[in-house]
Write a structure and sequence with these properties.
292 residues; alpha/beta; Protocatechuate 4,5-dioxygenase, Chain B; 6-stranded mixed beta sheet; two-stranded parallel ribbon; 10 helices; 10 strands; globular; zinc; oxidoreductase; metal-binding; Dioxygenase; oxidoreductase activity, acting on single donors with incorporation of molecular oxygen, incorporation of two atoms of oxygen
Length: 292
């Protein structure tokens, strides 16, 4: 079963774009006086995010609440690769349309970003000698990066790179995030991009057509929200045995794993997180959080 197609794909994005661009143009750029940018975990959505006006407004308002970053580094659910690899840093690197079954318009969208070679060098320098970073020569940004960033930074004036996700082990991902933490002091926005629940195989007609929320999705989201609100990293890391709704909420865990990179990059992983986007889309929890 596939999601119902809108009459005019991405029409909501088209309608919002002039206002998004105007707000982005007026956004102050990050300076050292602003201090480290916060790491974030966002539920990025499939391309139909660009048909959800409320969601886009929330994402845009969140982006505007921070200074415009000097660069963005994304760890996405859609690039699992070990050893560590970085996407191609050249300006205007083509996008990855890593989805199927959607309207043609989504495969024609473009998001050309500036050269990110300086960020690539800084990420490589942050890794230990025993874990070098492979520079991928041609891989572009996947939809876990370009869909939300088209809304958050619609002018395409911020350099963007993706770092592959080499494991699903929370401890190793927390350690990876900690190695990336100093980049925040240089105006880099660190983004873990996933989806708070992602049990696509277990969605039925009521979810696709009416957005009904399955019990497993609601219970997992409530559990995660409570653990994040009290900064309980140990509880979150034990999701496989502690979280209600498993394994339906995450039959595979790649959409949850980026959360641990963001937590590791936090100055205080055990500090309460701030929910910036909540609610559900086709029954899936779109909770997004900002860390300290």
């Amino acid at each position: 079963m596939t999601a119902p197609a809108p009459a005019a794909p991405a029409a909501a994005y088209d309608a919002l774009l002039p206002a998004l661009r105007a707000a982005s143009a007026a956004q102050p750029a990050w300076t050292p006086d602003d201090g480290p940018l916060p790491p974030v975990y966002l539920s990025h959505g499939a391309p139909p995010l660009l048909d959800e006006a409320g969601w886009m407004r929330s994402l845009a308002a969140w982006a505007r609440s921070m200074p415009r970053p000097r660069a963005v580094l994304v760890v996405s659910a859609h690039w699992e690769s070990a050893p560590l690899a970085l996407s191609a840093p050249a300006a205007g690197t083509p996008l990855v349309y890593d989805f199927g079954g959607f309207a043609r318009r989504y495969y024609e969208l473009e998001y050309a970003t500036p050269d990110a070679s300086a960020l690539a060098a800084r990420v490589a320098a942050a890794m230990p000698d025993a874990e070098p970073v492979h520079q991928h020569g041609s891989r572009g940004l996947d939809h876990g990066a370009w869909v939300p960033l088209m809304v958050m930074y619609p002018l395409g004036d911020v350099p963007v790179l993706q770092l592959s996700m080499p494991t699903h082990d929370p401890a190793r991902l927390l350690a990876l995030g900690a190695r990336l933490r100093p980049l925040r002091e240089e105006g880099v926005l660190l983004v873990g991009s996933g989806f708070m629940t992602h049990g696509l195989p277990f969605l039925g007609r009521e979810q696709w057509t009416r957005g009904a929320v399955p019990t497993w999705s609601a219970e997992f989201d409530a559990w995660a929200a409570e653990a994040l609100a009290r900064g309980d990293v140990d509880e979150l890391a034990a999701y496989a045995t502690r979280a209600p709704g498993m394994p339906y909420a995450h039959p595979t865990v790649e959409h949850l794993s980026p959360l641990f990179v963001a937590l590791g990059a936090a100055s205080r992983p055990d500090a309460p997180a701030t929910t910036t986007v909540d609610g559900f889309w086709i029954g899936l929890a779109k909770r997004s959080v900002q860390l300290v």
